[in-house]
Structures are given as C-alpha cells and as structure tokens.
Amino acid sequence: MAHPIITVEDYSFSYKASNKKALDRLSFSIDEFECCGIIGPSEAGKSTLCYAITSVLPHYFSGGKTEGRVLTAGLDALSTPMDLMMKKVGLLIQSSGVFLSGIKPTVREEIAFSMENLGISRTEIVERIQSVMEELGIESLAERDPLTLSGGEMQRVALACVLALDPQVLILDEPTSSLDGEGVRDLRLILSKLKGKKTILLVEQRMELLPGLIDSLLVLREGKKVYSGHAERFFSSIGSLEEDIGAPIWTQVCYHIASRGNRTAGTLPYTYRQALKALGTIR
Amino acid sequence: MRMSSHLLTSKGMRPVHPLTKLYFTVSTVVLCFLLDVTAQVFIACLLLILCVLTRQRRSIFKRFLRYVLPVVILVLLLNVLIYPESEKWISLFGFRVNEVGFHFGLIVSLRLSVMSLSLLLFFVTTPPHLLATAVLMKGASPRIVFVFLHSLQLVTTLRRKIGKIFIAQASRGLDVKGNPFKRVKALFPMLLPLVFSYLSESLERGLALELRGLGIHGPKSYLVELKESGTERVANLLLLLGTSTVILWKLLQWLIR
Amino acid sequence: MNLRTKDLHHVYAGDIHALKGISLTIAGGRCVLLLGQNGAGKSTLLKHLNGILKPTSGEVLVGETNTKLHDAAFLAQFVALSFQNPDDQISSKSVVEEAMFGPRNLGKQDPEALAREALRMFSLEGDANTHPYDLHPSKRKLLTIASAIAMDTPVVAFDEPTAGFDVTQRCLFGKALERLKERGKTVILVSHDLDYSLQYCDSVILMDHGSVTFHGDKIHLLSRPDLREILRASGLGLPILCRMSKAIGLRTAPSSVEEFVQLLHDNRTI
Predict the structure, then answer these.
(1) Is the confidence at residue B4, as pLDDT, over 70?
(2) Domains in chain A: how many in total?
(3) Are residues A25 and A78 in the same domain?
(4) B141, B220 in Cβ contact below 8 A?
(5) Average per-residue pLDDT in chain A?
(6) Confidence of residue B85 (pLDDT cuts 50, 70, 90)
(7) Which residues from C are below 8 Å from A182, CB to CB?
C-alpha cells in the first residue's frame, strides 16, 4: 500500500526582497516509489519547489517568507538540517558543471565527495562508488578529470554523485535541457531503470519524455497549482490542454485535428501508440 | 595534470606524506632565512639531492631557470651596481665592482635561490588535493580548504571564460584594437561579464556544495588513504623541534644584543 | 546576402581536424538548420562565418568579403552570432542598454529603436530598465537573442537558442524567425531540437566529424528513403512527425504540427 513520502500543505514562499510569491498555497502529495512529472511555464516555481522539498529554502535562501508545511520522507523540510535531508533526498540541479565540486582530480573521488563529508566509512564509500558507476555505465570515466568531461558525461557523473548517497527520493531539475538526442535517450533509459525503486520527481519541458515514464503529474503556473493527479487524465482531455503548458507532439496533432472538426470535448491520446491508433481511425 | 609525490628511494617508490613535506619546506625556508651561509650551502646541497631523486626534477629545474634565476641575477646586479660606495674595489670580468656590494649580493642571491628551490620542490611534487586532504585530516575547515583548492583552478577557469567572453563580444562588434583609450574602454564589456557570471555562478556553486554536505560538522572520512608512517612522525617532530630551537636561539641572541 | 565556403579546413592546436574541406553555399534569405553531434564541427563552422576563426586552408566569403582579410568586429556588420551562454556577454546594467550594445558598436543610426523593437519581439520591453541579472535565466537567453537581432545584420546565426525555453518562449522565437525571413535575412540555426527546428527552416546541413553529409532543401532530406540512417550517423533520431507520418502511411513527411494536420485533411478529402 503506497503511502505519501512527500506532503506539501498550504505552502507559500517568497524570496527575500520580493513581493511576488514564488509558491502560492501549494498542496499536494507524492506517494513512495511514484514517478511524478512537474511541468509548467518558465518561472512557475518548479525549481523553488525542488528547493523546498530538499530543505534548501530555509537554509540557503534565508530571509524569505514561508508559510505552510513540507514533509519529506518523514522529516520537516523547513527545519531539518541539510545533512540529515541529504541522505533522504537527492537533488540534481540543472547545471551539472556547477554541481561538480571542481576540486577533485578524478571522477571516482568526485563521487566520493558527498560521502566523505557525511563521514561514511571508507569501505562503504568504495563499494557504493563501484555499484553506482556500474549502474550508470561510467566505469570508463573513473580516472578522468571531471573538468574535461563532455556535457552528457558530466551529467551522468553528477547523477552518480547523487545516487551514491542512496536517497529515497530523487529530484531532477530539467535534466535534458543541455543534452543532445543521444544524451536524452540515455537519461530516459537510466530513469526507467530507477522507476519503481525510488521516488522520482522530474521537472521537464520536453513533454514527449513523460508518457511511459511518469505516473502522476503536477502542473504549476505562477506559483500556483493548476493540476495534480494522474498524468494521462491531464493530457487526454481536450478541455484541459493549455497553450502555455504544452503537450506531447502527438497529442497536439490530435488536438488540432479535433479543433478543426470543432470538437471541444472528448479524449486526446497521451502515449504515442494511442496517437497512432487514433490517427489510424481518423483516416 | 597529475603530479606524483613519489621519491625514488632504494626502497622503491613510496609517496612522502604531504604534511611532512610541508614541515620540511617551512623549516628549510625559515632556517635559510635565519642561519648563515654555511648552513644555507648545506641546505642547498640537501635540496639538490632531493630534487635529483624526484621524478619531476626536470620540471623543477626548468622552472628554476625560467622564474628564479633571472630574479637572482637581477638582485646580484642591483647590489653590485647600487650598493653604497665603499673603499674596496675588485675586478670582475674586467669591470671594477664594489667588493662589499658584490659579497652582499651573493649572500642575498644564495638565500633567495635556496628558499625558492625549497618552495619549488614542494609545490611541484605535491598534488594540491593530497595536501588538502592531509590538512583536512588534521582538522582544517572544509570550507577554507575548498576555497584554497578552488582558487588554484581559478586562473585557468577565468582564462577560459575570458576567451569565451571575447568571442561573444567581438561577435557583437566590439573592437579591441586602436588607440589606448579605445582599448581601455573595450575592457569593461570584457570584464563585466566575467565578474557578473562568476558571482552568479558562485551562488549556484555554493548551493551545490551545501547539497553535497560541505558545511556539515562532524567526523569526515577519506577515500584517498594518507597514512603517516612512524619515520614521518619522528621526522615531523624533529623538524618542528629543530626549527623552533633555532628560532628561539636567534630570538635570544637578538634580545641580548 | 549569401555565404560561401571553399574547401574550408580548420585544424585546432593539437592536430584536431575540426573541418575537413567544407565547400558549400548558403543562399541569401534562407533559414538553414545546421545539425550534427557534439564535436561534428557545427560551432567551428559558425565561428568561421563571422571571422572569429580563420581558415587553416580554404576560404570563407560573406557576400563578396573574404573573412581572412578582416577581423570579427568588422564582419559583425554582416553576420550576428548569438552564443549558447548568455552570461558570457551580459555587460550592461539594463536590458535595453544590453540590447543596444551590438547596434552601437556597428555605428547604427538609432540603436535604441533597433534595441526596443527587438525586445518587443520577445515581450521584454516591460523589463527594459531591469538589470539583466534580475531576470530569470531563460529570459536572459531571450535577451541575448534579441541583442543579436537588434544588430540588424543581413545574416543572423543562433547556437542552441531554445535550450531551456518553455512553450511560450519557443513560440516567441519561432515568430521572430518568421519575421527575420520576411525581411529577407539569412538565418542559420544550430539546434539539437529537431522536432522544433524543422518547422522553421528551409534547408538543412548535416555534419558528421568535420564533413558535410547532406546539404539541401528540407523536403529533399525528409523524403530520403535512408533518412533514419543518415540522421543516426549524426547522432539524431527520426523527427517524431516523420515517424508518425510513416506509421500511418502518409507519403510526404511534414515538419510541423499544422502541416501534418493539413496533410491528413488533404488525404482524407482525396
């Protein structure tokens, strides 16, 4: 029986010296082992939400106004120190180049960095490094200087650094924004392997990645919740498709066909296969 | 660039603990400064032997010739030419030079050379991250150690960044040629993005480091094993005691006078 | 203004042969999509077009001007190049000043008007007096794109312009591309986002390890029977609309959602 691992209750946050609320009375929950997609236009508060769940907001962005509660893996995200939160939730920020410390000479030592800071035993560090490198297929990069890696390689190393702590929750903030086609395919493969083993939050702009990967969807706009629930339900209803939020290309195609035929109600395909089926019958 | 701190000894390759090397270097520099020429010559010989034994000897001597030797020669020349007038003159390579100035110049040059050689030996043979680990093990603040390591990379990082900025700004018509006034004016659109982007990146970097536990208090562990052998511990103690003794001795001498 | 390269070779220090004899002509007034894996030579080629890089051998002609004879600051009046990282160029304290930087350097008559017009294209005119670093990173990216367009050059090139954009921002960029085409500008687009970029381009250049493997009209590319293979060699997958049209048996491959819907409609009425 799945129980919520992340609960956000009436949560609001404004950054210091800002009148605008970055997040406005947000309430939703995510079950353990669920894969939730977080989408919305630019400046909707998606990254801010990631920071809130990871305990970053009260500690790193001090002086901001907070209301409400955020519970992550049984801990109060607004008051738990980051060293406790680190072991429960791993956040992969958008820029992997900045995420890597830049002070470690090899990838192996880079992956060890967070574990060293936590005081995890050396034997365990060695074990975890090996297992996470195998999982992500980066054994060949072990002795490389992290500063000489390509964008896609850097990101896989950054992901390894996060996974090495074995967090229950994994949050990825727009991981594909600087990847090429191959990089996107590789990432999707890695995420589908992790699905079901960890709770995953994926902030994404490329809607085509979501079907088949995410179970639920959270849609934000200007800090407010637009929708939270089953992913398919959001995209498959003609009425709920929003211009500034977008949808997978195949869904858009069927949406335009429906609008041409002046249909304003009905279902749209969510997955690629569903779209082909729908288009087949249209012809 | 991967540096090794291995010494070619008869026992085979064995890395010397970075802290022992640090204590050794500090001791030689201090002693060189405080003691007389005989001691300096002795230290110089010791350093030369060590340099020859390391793998990076070529790099050390190359850097010595390129950076230290010109300064040493300049110091010598300055002393020879500018030292206040005195009675005695000697002939050097057909030139009439001030004897006292020449001797003084030699002493200063020797001291400078030996101190530089010691520092070069240390920095060329000690990978900064190993030194950082050694210092962390002794309880140094992780944040300060990070800043130190980060600054070492800074020059390379900033140079690369300036390259990219130059390309971006030249593509927008920024002319870096022309009269000196124009060139100075062109500096601002080059340096401002450097400063802005570095500061902006620092915020994100700080966040990433917190996420990776840099600010955590409590015992740390280390992937790279750095163990101080018995010999090294004894050596550290001797160096510390020996150098302190000399410092105290010199202090006393100075006070008595 | 058309661009020509004649047997262009570029070798970086360390014997890296980035461009291996590229000879092509980009006709004026067209929008060209430059595709290829990381390391294929796309950025290198772009930097030759405005003289940032000089050929190791061969030549590059911007209109009738040989890039070997002039520096980038001079060639910037012909070719405006917009780079990936906005933080590599922002040097002004307000958005409008930043957009005026390029036109001012080029000695344009009314740099402010050009800047404001470009800002309007990207809905940034409301932020004209804001400090660029007070903007969200994706808005800063829009600013650098606007800054390049404000230079009002006959050729504009964009390196990965839409990375990190949301739907509205991609739409704004697309509209800007159409405006540029209407004005007869030559546009060069380097992008990994095939599904998005194909809508706006007329022709495609495909690069692989320093050589050009395809250069021609978009329609010719999309109708090739070996499209999947030729794209795979450049590390790209089939565009989604192509996959869809093949799967449902449409004869031609559309490059935009509207085109797809139209094709389907036409097929039905036949």
Answers:
(1) no
(2) 3
(3) yes
(4) no
(5) 90
(6) low
(7) 37, 235
Helix (H, G, I), strand (E, B), or coil: what is residue A80? coil
Sign of CA dihedral B190, B193, B195, B198: negative
Residues of chain C found within 8 Å of residue A174, distances taken between Cβ atoms: 164
Q: Residue A236: which residues within 8 A CB-CB, separation 6 or more?
A: A251, A267, A268, A269, A270
Q: Does residue A56 sit in the same domain as residue A177?
A: yes
Q: Quick check: is A70 in a domain?
A: yes
Neighbours of C, requiring at least 3 CB pairs below 8 Å, are: A, B
C25, β-bridge pairs: C4
Q: Considering the domain boundaries, does residue A94 fall inside one? A: no
**Is there a domain that residue A122 lies in?**
yes
Statement to judge: residues A143 and A277 lie in one domain: no
pTM over 0.80, yes/no: yes
Q: Are residues A77 and A110 in the same domain?
A: no
Please, where are the H alpha helices in chain C?
A: 42-49, 72-75, 95-105, 111-121, 137-150, 167-182, 194-197, 218-222, 227-232, 240-247, 257-269
Among candidate residues A151, A166, A181, the one where a domain is terminated: A166
Backbone φ and ψ for C224, nearest 5 degrees, come out as -75, 135
Closest residue by Cα to residue A181 from C38, B130, C164, B198: C38
Token couple for C251: 């004869």
Chain A contacts in chain B segment 21-80 (CB below 8 A): none
A171-205 pLDDT tens trace: 999 998 878 888 888 899 999 999 989 999 999 99
Which of A190, A205, A229 terminates a domain? The answer is A229
- Buried (b) or exposed (e) across C44-62, using 16+ Cβ within 10 A? bbbbbbbbbbbbeebbbeb
Q: What DSSP string describes A234-276?
A: HHHBGGG--TTT---HHHHHHHHHHHHTT--SSB---SHHHHH
Q: Which residue has the higher pLDDT, A262 or C123?
A: C123
Do A184 and A218 lie in one domain? The reply is: yes
The Cα A101–Cα B209 span in angstroms is 7
Would you call C138 and A42 a contact, using CB atoms and an 8 Å cutoff?
yes
Which residues span the domain enclosing A109? 100-166
Reported as a pLDDT band with limits 50, 70 and 90, residue B5 is: very low
Angstroms from B226 CA to nearest CA on chain A: 12
pLDDT of residue A162: 95
Instruction: Specify which residues B6 forms β-bridges with.
Output: B15
Structure-block tokens of residue C120: 């309007």
What token pair was written down for A98?
């900045």
H/E run at residue A182: helix A181-194
Secondary structure (3-state) at C34: strand
**Residue A93 located in a structural domain:** no
Q: Give chain A's largest Cα–Cα span.
A: 66
User: Please, what is the Cα angle at B160 between C87 and C189, to 5 degrees?
Assistant: 55
Residue indicated by tokens 């570029």: C10
Dig out the tokens for A219 from the structure: 């849609």
A: neighbours with 3+ CB pairs under 8 Å? B, C
Residues 6+ apart with CB under 8 A from B67: B116
Residue A79 shares a structural domain with residue A3: yes
Interface predicted TM-score (ipTM) = 0.90
What are the tokens at A221? 């706009």
CB within 8 Å of C103: residues ≥ 6 apart: C111, C114, C115, C150, C151, C152
Q: Is residue A153 located within the same domain as residue A190?
A: no
**Residue in B closest to C100 by C-alpha:** B172
